[in-house]
Protein: CFA47 protein
Amino acid sequence: FYFTGARLAPKEKLDIPVLFMPDTMKMYEAVVVIHVMRENGENWPFEDSAELNDDLKSRVTVAENGGIQGILWMYPVRGIPEAPQQKLVPAVVRCQARQRVERRVEVLLTGVISGASAMPAERNSTMVNANKPANIQEEVQVTDGFSTTVEFLYELQYQSNEIKSQLESLVGMDLVQSERDTESGIVTLVFNIVFAPNKPMRNEATLIVQCAAGGVWKFPVLFIATEPAVDDVINIEAVGLNKESIVGFKLTSQTR
Structure:
């Protein structure tokens, strides 16, 4: 659309509202073009208008007399649709400190476009904490309708850089299974998450999945590390009333 007639005083700011209301889970691109001309209709003098380089030629309009009639600013806009945020129950990955656990987490993506086709985006996304035995997963049939051209990027985002530095080396995640239901268009992704905490903690993270076509889905994940098992029991026998008893033991550091 075009909007004309905006007048700007020197050093005045211009706010340009941009509305984005996607109907499919794919990326949209546009360019906001601003064309500025002098209010009195005169041109900006420019002696070497014939020698403008190609980059500058695309940003100005040159009048017949050699002056600059208008100046162009072009701002690319990229619209990335995100699935509506709902109060999803977090997938809980629980492990005792100094132990290691593997959990399978299943996420459902609605509105994924396949190839060149565009499917209307559903209004909900669901998350299921699978943690199922391997024999139950055999009941899921991988359909041939899942296009191999649909690729997904995924990452875990943490609430702060401090939490990220704590969990980044303790958490591993891999995409182990992907399938699509041809009737509903829902894509199921199964992730294998490894959690090996070294101390008790409770931290939240967000699993972000992005389709190569541009759609984004977010799912909460909760990491809980419980108290570790007792290393040993130290017994101290009293030698008498009001007398000290001493027991010695060694502690070995895991790092330097």
Notes: The first helix runs from residue 54 to 57. The radius of gyration is 30 Å.
